[in-house]
Structures are given as C-alpha cells and as structure tokens.
Write a structure and sequence with these properties.
Elements lengths: L2 E5 L9 E8 L2 E9 L5 H5 L7 H5 L7 H16 L5 H27 L14 H11 L7 H16 L20 H29 L8 E2 L2 E2 L13 H32 L13 E2 L3 E3 L7 E3 L2 E4 L2 E7 L6 H4 L2 E4 L38 E4 L8 H10 L3 H18 L11 H31 L15 E10 L2 E10 L2 E8 L1 H5 L11 H6 L11 H8 L5 H5 L16
Antiparallel strand pairs: 1-2, 2-3, 4-5, 6-9, 7-8, 9-10, 11-12, 13-14, 14-15
The chain binds NI-FE active center and magnesium ion.
The site of NI-FE active center has 16 residues, from helix 13 and helix 16.
C-alpha cells in the first residue's frame, strides 16, 4: 500500500511550497511540487517605463533581492543594444557576488544544515574532542575549545528553560540523523558564527547599493554611483576601503569553515550521494561580465545533456541566440491558461490565471514549467559548477578537487565526480561556487580601483528609446540558478514582460509532455524511514534552495481576480 504524504508548507524556504509524495516500500515512487501562491508582477509592469522595471521586479523576492534588478536592466539594455561603462560592470559584479556569497552561506547554515545536524545530540559531545577534530580539519579561528564549551553551555541553558529558540522544530533524534555528537556541536557553533559572518557580505551590498534588501543604485545604462574622492555623498575611496575590509573578513570563513563543513557533512552522509539525482540535463548562464558589452565572463555557463560533461555547449554572450531561442514555458499543469494551448516562448508569454484545485494528473501549481529546447533542465550551483568543470574553469576545479579530496579522506573511500549528481552534491557545488564567487569579488574590487586610478570615473550611459517595437532578454546566474527576464517594449513602454526564474525551472510541475520537473524527479527513490517525519524528503527539496516567491511572481488569497493596478 502506498502512503501519501503532503508537506504544506515546506519551511525554511522563501514562500509557500507544497510537496506531495507517495511512499511505497520505504521509498518515494511519485512526487508533485506545487507553488501555493500567485503573484502578478508581470502585469504590474505593463504600460510602464522600462527604466523603472528593475525597481519593481526586484520586489518579486526578499531573498534574492538584487538579482531581479540586475536581470531587468540587462533585459532592457539588450533590447536597446546598450553597453554599460566598465565601472558599472565592476560595481554590479561586486554586488552580485557579495549577494551570492551571503545567500549560499545562509542557505547552508541556517536554511538546510538542521536537516543533517542534530542540535540536541550536540549536548552529549565532548567539547575538547570537538576542538581536536575541528583543528585537524582546518585552522579556522572559531575552532578553539573555549568556543565549543561556551556554545554547549548556551545550548544547555536553552534546553534547561525548555526553549530551543531557533532550534525548536527540528527532527531531533530521527533515525536518519547520523553525525556523531562532536560533529553536531561543531556544526552548531558554526551555525552561530555564520550569523555574524553573513553580515559582512550584506554590508558590501548595502555600501555599494545604498541599502539591502533591495539595492537602490541600478539604472538602465549603468549604476547611479558617482565616483569621486572628495564628496561624502558619493562612492569615495573611504567607502571602497570599507568594502575591502568586509571582503577580507569573508575569505577565511568560506575557505576554512564553509568548504570544510560541507565536506564533513558529505563524508558522514556519503550514502546521500546516491539519492536525489533527478534530472541531469543542466543549464547555467555565464556571469560576472568583465567588458561593457557582456562577452567576456569570469564564470562560464552553458548546457550539459544527461550529466555528460562532454556534451557541454557554452552560452557565450548576453543575448546569445542559443539561449534566447531555447526557452519556452508550459502551463498544462499550472493554474494558468494560454490562448494557443501549447508552450510559449517568454516574449510571447501570457499570465492568465486559471485556478482549478489540486489535480494529480491535471493542474496543480502556480509555477509554470520551463523547458530548454523542449526538455526540463536542472539549474543552480550544481549546474553552474558542472558547466565550469566542463569548460576547464581553473578556480572551480581547484575548489572542487579540494572538496572531493576532503570528503574522500574523511569517508575513507575515493568519491567520484559523478557523486555530484545528488542531494549532497548540490550542497557541495554551492560551497564550491561560493569560493569562486569570492575570487570574483576580490578581482572586481581590484579592477575597479585600478580603473579609477586611471582616471575613468564613468558609471552611466544614457538610454534612448526608439519608436516602434524592440525586444530584449537579460540573464543572470542567480544564487538558485538561471534567471532570465524577457521584455517587449513599444514606443518606450513595456508591452510584455516575463520572468523565468531559477525556482520556476527546478520547482516546475509536469510539462507539456507530462514529464516531471527537477524537484519531482529528484524525489523519486528517496528513502523515507518514518512517513510521520519525512526528513529525507526535506533534505532533497532543501538541497535546491527553493524560493517560491521568485517562482510564481501579489498574493490573491481569494484565488479570484487578477490584481488591479492603476497605471499612472
Ligand atoms: Ni527568491 Fe531567486 C534566486 C531568483 S529563485 S530567491 O536565486 O531569481 O528562483
Ligand atoms: Mg514567470
């Protein structure tokens, strides 16, 4: 007999995701991923000035806040064939990379580690042994024995008062929790330290972008950061030195703590390299452009078929037709209707809600189902790291090899690269990407300083909108993967706008061919020890870092009409 489990909402993510699985003989044999809220940001944009779209689309999400802003200006610039000044690319790149680093650290420690780490077990640890283990793994400054003694005391007082605070609702004592008490204590200490460290990355975003969440400094054509050395109200050398200080503080944590912790979790849960594979057609876009037109990138992206790196096809530049022509979205299983009945390219995309109810074989989600040349694709750090490996990207290979070596030595067995196609592989890839993002952040700070030293302080090229219709696509490798915005502009006003978002790719329901999306595919075969406490399902879903706010683009709790917005 199959048991149906509905998890709604899934927590420790952004937004409302419902996942249904059917478990038979201790394993998932059917899965459904469903976005449970609807948003209508695309309609809000209709009739508006394309220069405002970035500020509006950025409100799609409070987690990946900068990414919709960046992607939106890129879409409008692509429609205008407008380049941006070199300094603007560097400043945007620093914001993007700092934001990505922030996002990855918070995801691992605060949004997913508790799927693997048993906080209550940490009470049983010997803090001295924890310190010995930690010091054998790395020279992270937060690994002294006094730290672990102190953290354990704090945990005891939490538990003594019956208030576990942020640790209240975990699956403590679950049979799938496998870390020894010492490793659990180590992870809890780093969880608390990461709360402090993530602020450094956010400080970079807020210094350059004027605030976070939701930066204020973007513009179609560049950034609104005037550079000068003699005014407090602009980007001064003093502020740039503050950014440098924050960059320096982040490096040790990423290399000596995050990469090592992911490796340790990977080694103790080596069996999870055998779960959560799912769709192995991977899509990533190149990012961190180092030239005004967006043709030279510090991080590669492209498409890999069936997990085989030899099939890698690079995406080479902003507006690359290979990417531009390959994307379509289906609503066959989503609560929308399309006038043509089939899948639509995003420039022709429609946002017409048609709510039914949850129908296993019919419509069951507010998320659309995107495809690349007709096939679903997995996006995210794993896709990006695999593309970088296929492209022979040196920084990626360096960190990837380091993680694989550490996991192999801790697990006492050689872990092959193929182990990356898994739940644990997505966490490992995210840490590797975080370390590469960090190198890009350092390089862009240096490049900006050198360019300013040459006397170039330009940050903005003024856009001019032609009469008639133009179309643009902007893409960005956001923390959760490929993000693209598609804008159609007529006489300087938006006539269509579609966002095809990382979580739309990964949380997609079944598509036009009724084939499952990446979350659904990854869940098939996942073991479930206790249907009342489906920890294993959460592990695989959380490994993608879901964000439903992004995926479904104003909530309509009544499920009735679309949002009415007065266009001024
Ligand atoms: Ni709301 Fe997002 C990212 C975007 S997810 S978090 O990364 O775009 O789909
Ligand atoms: Mg969309």
């Amino acid at each position: 007999m199959a048991t149906r489990i509905t998890i709604d909402p899934i927590t420790r993510i952004e937004g409302h995701l419902r996942v249904d699985v059917e478990v038979e003989n201790g394993k998932v044999n059917k899965a459904w991923s469903s976005g449970q809220m609807w948003r209508g940001v695309e309609q809000i944009l209709l009739g508006r000035d394309p220069r405002d779209a970035w500020a509006i689309t950025q409100r799609i999400c409070g987690v990946c806040t900068t990414v919709h802003a960046i992607t939106s200006v890129r879409a409008v610039e692509n429609a205008l064939q407008l380049e941006v000044p070199q300094n603007a690319q560097y400043i945007r790149n620093m914001i993007m990379t700092a934001h990505g680093i922030h996002d990855h650290i918070v995801h691992f420690y605060h949004l997913s580690a508790l799927d693997w780490v048993d906080v209550v077990s940490a009470l049983k640890a010997d803090p001295v042994k924890t310190a010995q283990l930690a010091e054998s793994l790395s020279d992270w400054e937060g690994n002294g024995r006094h730290v672990f003694i102190d953290v354990q005391e704090r945990l005891k007082s939490f538990v003594g008062t019956g208030q576990l605070g942020p640790f209240t609702n975990g699956y403590w004592g679950h049979p799938a929790m496998k870390l020894p008490p010492e490793v659990n204590l180590l992870a809890v200490a780093h969880y608390l330290q990461a709360l402090e460290v993530q602020r450094y990355a956010n400080k970079i975003v807020s210094t350059l972008g004027s605030k976070t969440p939701h930066v204020q400094n973007l513009a179609v054509g560049g950034v609104s950061n005037p550079i000068a050395t003699d005014s407090q109200s602009v980007l001064t050398v003093e502020r740039l030195m503050l950014v440098k200080e924050m960059i320096d503080r982040l490096g040790a944590f990423i290399r000596n703590c995050y990469l090592v912790d992911v490796s340790a979790v990977g080694a103790f849960y080596a069996d999870w390299t055998g779960h959560g594979k799912g769709i192995t057609d991977y899509l990533a876009v190149p990012d961190v452009p180092m030239d005004p037109a967006g043709t030279k990138f510090m991080m590669p992206g492209g498409y890999i078929k069936g997990g085989d790196l030899a099939t890698y096809q690079p995406i080479k530049a902003f507006g690359d037709p290979y990417f531009r022509d390959g994307v379509a979205e289906s609503v066959k299983h989503s609560w929308y209707s399309y006038s043509n009945g089939g899948a639509l390219h995003p420039w022709k995309g429609e946002t017409t809600p048609q709510y039914t109810d949850f129908h296993d074989d019919g419509k069951y989600s507010w998320v659309k189902s995107p495809t690349f040349y007709g096939k679903p694709a997995q996006v995210g750090p794993l896709a990006q790291v695999l593309c970088a490996a296929a492209a022979g990207h040196q920084p990626t290979m360096t960190y990837l090899n380091k993680v694989v070596e550490t996991v192999s030595s801790l697990a006492g067995a050689k872990i092959p690269l193929a182990a990356l196609h898994s739940t644990i592989g997505r966490h490992a890839a995210r840490a590797v990407r975080c370390a590469v993002l960090y190198e890009c952040l350092q390089a862009n700070w240096q490049a900006l300083m050198e360019n300013i030293a040459k006397g170039d302080v330009k940050t903005f090229n003024k856009p001019v909108f032609p009469k008639g219709e133009i179309m643009g696509v902007g893409f960005h490798e956001a923390p959760r993967g490929v993000l693209s915005h598609w804008a159609v502009i007529k006489d300087g006003k938006i006539t269509n706008y579609q966002a095809v978002v990382p979580t739309t790719w990964n949380a997609a329901p079944r598509n036009e061919d009724d084939s499952v999306g990446p979350y659904e595919a990854a869940l098939l075969g996942t073991p479930v020890a206790d249907p009342e406490r489906p920890l294993e399902v959460l592990r695989t879903v959380h490994s993608f870092d879901p964000c439903l706010a992004c995926a479904v683009h104003l909530t309509d709790l009544e499920h009735k009409t679309t949002v009415q917005v007065k266009v001024l």
